[in-house]
Amino acid sequence: MGEHPSPGPAVAACAEAERIEELEPEAEGRPPAAPEDFDPGNTGYISTGKFRSLLDSHSSNLDPHKREVLLALADSREDGQICYQDFVNLMSNKRSNSFRQAILQGNRRLSSKALLEEKGLSLSQRLIRHVAYETLPREIDRKWYYDSYTCCPPPWFMITVTLLEVAFFLYNGVSLGQFVLQVTHPRYLKNSLVYHPQLRAQAWRYLTYIFMHAGIEHLGLNVVLQLLVGVPLEMVHGATRIGLVYVAGVVAGSLAVSVADMTAPVVGSSGGVYALVSAHLANIVMNWSGMKCQFKMLRMAVALICMSMEFGRAVWLRFHPSAYPPCPHPSFVAHLGGVAVGITLGVVVLRNYEQRLQDQSLWWIFVAMYTIFVLFAVFWNIFAYTLLDLKLPPPP
């Protein structure tokens, strides 16, 4: 390890952050306090003017691309202040490797000019820019994403799930000879992918029910929402994070049905879809002034109308006279389980673009809440059905 001279307060900011980044990664959890000369009140914030003077004084010690990023960070602060922790996080490389490479190896620098003002972009570059404005609330994040996105890997998770759902639907449609309201066919529930309360011990059904849909009207809306919302979110946040939110919504949906609508089966991917869409809509509302997507009010209204229509269809079907009494038609409660996941875990994921989730206290709070719910639902499924002496419909 190299030797460092004892710096003054101003030099300490850059030198300590550089030391954290390049020499002592184990010290990332212990960032230095903001220098007293720049933060006499020890508030954790310094003015952007003083921050700029700090950068100008020590620009020779900084990579020029990093200096541009830090200046862009200062420009993005409308209140005239910058959090010193943001500066340390950036210098200590708390973003992803792709982001680091975009800073160090990118051919273009972040500038004060908005991304929308750039001309001469190719079709793929315009698509990436469009996705950035659809999903990210801060201009600096949009520029970071635009610089770093390589489409490698592509948004494979949502596309793969969608193709599987369509394939299973077509197979069932051919085998049953019915594509509209497949769920009314007497042999529909005999499929081994459907969640059925009598077969709740078969754990795979809590997840595989997403590959069965009530009909083409059910599949169509879910597929449209998955592609229009899920694919752009995956392009920005990655398959791991979006897949986590989606699967968490799916599992929460089936478990919610097993607790709140104990006699009903479950089909469809609405739990996962509603988790993604509700997280995205909540993120837009929480960052309303920063989101620059076009016609956002109209598009939110359309999304809410579509979700309401799908939810209304599910409620109507649940209480419609069943085609296989005494078993009712599939439950609508999975939609609500997905929404609950979206406005908790989903919002934390979407609000922390390329930040480590394990550093976010809200993430651990919602993970604990989700874990408690899953454990409660598991014990409920083991004991409550017997204790309540509930009369379940016969197995299909």
From TrEMBL:
Location relative to the cell: Membrane
Membrane protein topology class: Multi-pass membrane protein
Domain of life: Eukaryota
MF-aspect GO terms: serine-type endopeptidase activity
Active site: 270, 335
Catalytically driven reaction(s): Cleaves type-1 transmembrane domains using a catalytic dyad composed of serine and histidine that are contributed by different transmembrane domains
One annotated GO biological process: proteolysis
InterPro entries: EF-hand-dom_pair, Peptidase_S54_rhomboid_dom, Peptidase_S54_rhomboid_met, Rhomboid-like_sf, Rhomboid_IM_Serine_Proteases
Uppermost EC category: hydrolase
E.C. designation(s): 3.4.21.105
Key words, A-Z: Hydrolase, Membrane, Protease, Repeat, Serine protease, Transmembrane, Transmembrane helix
Domain (Peptidase S54 rhomboid): residue spans on this chain: 201-351
Keyword match Nucleus: no
One GO cellular component term: membrane
Protein name, entry field: Rhomboid-related protein 3
Gene: Rhbdl3
